[in-house]
Amino acid sequence: MAAAATGRRAAAFLLSSAVRHQSSQSTSPQQGLVAKTSLTSPPWPEVKLPDPVEEAKFHAEVVQKVNKMIAAGQYGRLFAVVHFASKQWKITSEDLIMMDNVLEAECGDRIRMEKVLLVGADDFTLIGRPLLGRDLVRVEATVIEKTESWPKINMRFWKRHNYQRKKIIVNPQTVLRINTIEIFPCLS
């Protein structure tokens, strides 16, 4: 019995040393031995990309629908996002914009805003990358008023030092009225 126990111990030792030798020699993990953990796969679900042919077909249908709506004039009230005077403004027709800078145009002049970033209606939105084309959208405005802001007082004062500085700041302002936002059916 002692010989059998010794033989089993020797076989177990040889097996464990063979496994240890094999694991120290191979550097690539075996596929069956990698446990499924939270680190073996990303936590987000896999994203399957749509078929390019179906996507192109869907895109053509959407463009055709939007062109028909624009040609028929069934889009409702338009809004636009324009870049003007270093700011972005969300506007609709008959809106008033007050800008804190000088505009070269005189009162009553009509100007065209050419940097249109986005135009939308009830059922669709056209987004420029970065701008929409001049042949697609036209936004016109009228200069209503050129005035100055309320005086802002900048007062500096050090107590017990006889130091007082008073500065009155008045900024020029321009008021615009958005006349029209027009869109033309020439999407491609």
Provide a descriptive summary of the structure in words.
The chain has 188 residues and is an alpha+beta fold. Helix content is 24%, strand content 35%. It contains 2 helices and 10 strands; from the N terminus they run ααββββββββββ. It has helices at residues 2-25, 52-72, and strands spanning 79-84, 87-92, 96-99, 110-113, 116-120, 125-127, 137-148, 152-158, 163-169, 172-183.
Quick overview of this protein structure:
The protein has 188 residues and is α+β, with helices and mostly antiparallel strands. Helices cover 24% and strands 35% of the residues. Strand 1 (79-84) and strand 2 form a beta hairpin.
Output the radius of gyration: 36 Å
Relative helix content: 10-25%
Mean pLDDT: 86
Quaternary structure type: single chain
Number of helices: 2
**Biggest sheet record:** 4 strands, antiparallel
Strand order, main sheet: write it out: 2-1-5-6
Approximately how much beta-strand content do the residues carry? 35-45%
CA-based shape: flat
Structural class: alpha+beta
Straight-line N-to-C gap: 90 Å
Residue ranges: pLDDT <50 for 5 or more in a row?
Answer: none
Order of helices and strands: HHEEEEEEEEEE
Count the E strands: 10
Summarize this structure as a short list of keywords or feature phrases.
188 residues; alpha+beta; 4-stranded antiparallel sheet; 2 helices; 24% helix
SSE diagram, text form:
Blueprint: H1 2-25, H2 52-72, E1 79-84, E2 87-92, E3 96-99, E4 110-113, E5 116-120, E6 125-127, E7 137-148, E8 152-158, E9 163-169, E10 172-183
